[in-house]
Recover the amino acids of this structure.
């Protein structure tokens, strides 16, 4: 049975303009510059540079307008400084624009492919070798199963081969390439390949036996079992373990680090100390001065002066109106973005004033997104957008803003302290521990209690994982 009824609902929906504004706020400086260039290219109503001087005077200001669908005066402005004119500059003309040049280099996979020319391979085997090289990841490992590569060669290259043939090419070609260990299918094979290329010695021989016969014991650092299995002293085992520790577990990443392109971080804010006080500036050096195109102004004036207004003219003016509306909104959005960034960062700076003034991380106060959102009367999501991808240049280096945020805990004196401070103390305790008998999480909990921080073992484990520090057993050294 069908029924009809009326319902009233209160819904909070973001308009497309609000969504676009949120995206603009989230963009860091370099991405924002690209977005600015894109808008200028797509909207012919926007021009870059200083606005040409007005040639028309004030002849249209007091003119009575006809009642039309479009009020031209809403889009014509003869003010000396139009509302849509944008100019913000926190730098003098004498400041140098120092840019970091980008390094050019050959990629990891291109280097591997170039090495194939040093082998005498038939056309089909060369294609297979190139396919294997293309399947190697950035760390230097061949993660895919050989049977899957056999299928891909058949479907994509029309080459029918077997796992045995692939394995042969892998061992005779790929595993002979630099860096040594590339093309390994797991860590064990990678380390063994590197040991095989070292000068033979007693330590190397024992290290090879450890990897081939007792790899699990080695990974779990069961050194007593290894000494018992190979009937060697602790000193001899230590030398062999040292040989293994000198090997590279990620041969590909080492090569890639030498040709990695230079990453340039452009700070969104700058904080400097002037007469013992902090001063905040927003980096808008690369935001150009925008104004409405003179050509569009002329077209609007021509339409206004025309006595006969036909359909094509009205359609053209409607198009101009749409572009001008978009231009006005975009410039207003830029202003709102800059205002939001400044208000948010200024509040963060005031909250962390002592830390930013001294650079001492012990003075970093607990701070969560809600603290800042409540102070500036904005939504938490807005503060998150400002903090997550923005950088600030301080007298102590360029910092990611989200690193200023941390939760709080109380010490034995009842004072709120930042969890980041506790993590630094935990890191120092682990760094200074006896590696032959590393502290368990329970012991670390007791050590922190001695420092005045009563923290449960499970919380210690969480902080340790966040610091990327392994458990005690894996930190043990012989």
């Amino acid at each position: 049975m069908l029924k009809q009824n009326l319902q009233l609902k209160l819904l909070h929906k973001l308009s497309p303009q609000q969504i676009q504004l949120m995206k603009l706020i989230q963009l860091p400086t370099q991405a924002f510059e690209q977005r600015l260039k894109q808008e200028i290219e797509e909207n012919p109503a926007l021009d870059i540079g200083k606005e040409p001087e007005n040639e028309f005077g004030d002849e249209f200001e007091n003119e009575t307008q006809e009642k039309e669908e479009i009020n031209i005066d809403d889009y014509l402005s003869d003010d000396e400084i139009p509302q849509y004119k944008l100019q913000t500059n926190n730098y003098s003309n004498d400041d140098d624009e120092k840019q970091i040049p980008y390094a050019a280099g050959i990629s990891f996979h291109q280097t591997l492919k170039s090495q194939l020319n040093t082998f005498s391979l038939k056309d089909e085997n060369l294609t297979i070798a190139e396919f294997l090289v293309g399947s190697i990841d950035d760390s230097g490992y061949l993660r895919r199963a050989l049977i899957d590569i056999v299928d891909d060669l058949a479907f994509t290259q029309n080459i029918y081969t077997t796992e045995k043939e692939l394995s042969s090419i892998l061992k005779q070609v790929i595993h002979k390439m630099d860096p040594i260990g590339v093309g390994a299918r797991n860590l064990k094979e990678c380390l063994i390949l590197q040991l095989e290329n070292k000068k033979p010695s007693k330590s190397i021989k024992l290290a090879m036996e450890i990897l081939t016969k007792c790899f699990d014991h080695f990974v779990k650092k069961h050194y007593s079992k290894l000494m018992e299995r190979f009937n060697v002293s602790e000193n001899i085992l230590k030398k062999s373990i040292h040989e293994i520790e000198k090997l590279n577990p990620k041969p590909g990443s080492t090569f890639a680090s030498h040709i990695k392109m230079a990453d340039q971080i452009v700070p969104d804010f700058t904080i400097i100390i002037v007469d013992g006080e902090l001063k905040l500036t927003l980096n808008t050096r690369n935001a150009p001065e925008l104004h409405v195109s003179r050509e569009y102004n002329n077209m609007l004036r021509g339409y206004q002066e025309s006595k006969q207004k036909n359909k094509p003219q009205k359609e053209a003016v409607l198009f101009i109106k749409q572009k001008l509306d978009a231009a006005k909104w975009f410039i207003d959005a830029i202003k709102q973005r800059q205002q939001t960034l400044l208000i948010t960062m200024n509040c963060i700076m005031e909250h962390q004033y002592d830390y930013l003034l001294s650079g001492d991380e012990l003075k970093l106060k607990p701070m969560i997104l809600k603290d800042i959102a409540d102070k500036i009367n904005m939504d938490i999501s807005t503060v998150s957008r400002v903090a997550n991808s923005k950088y600030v240049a301080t007298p102590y280096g360029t910092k990611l803003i989200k690193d200023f945020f941390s939760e709080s805990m109380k010490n034995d004196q009842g004072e709120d302290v930042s969890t980041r401070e506790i993590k630094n103390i935990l890191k120092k305790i682990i760094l200074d521990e006896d590696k032959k008998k590393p502290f368990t999480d329970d012991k670390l909990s007791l050590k922190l209690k001695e420092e005045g921080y009563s923290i449960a073992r499970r919380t210690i484990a969480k902080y340790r994982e966040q610091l990327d520090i392994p458990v005690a057993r894996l930190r043990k050294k012989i």
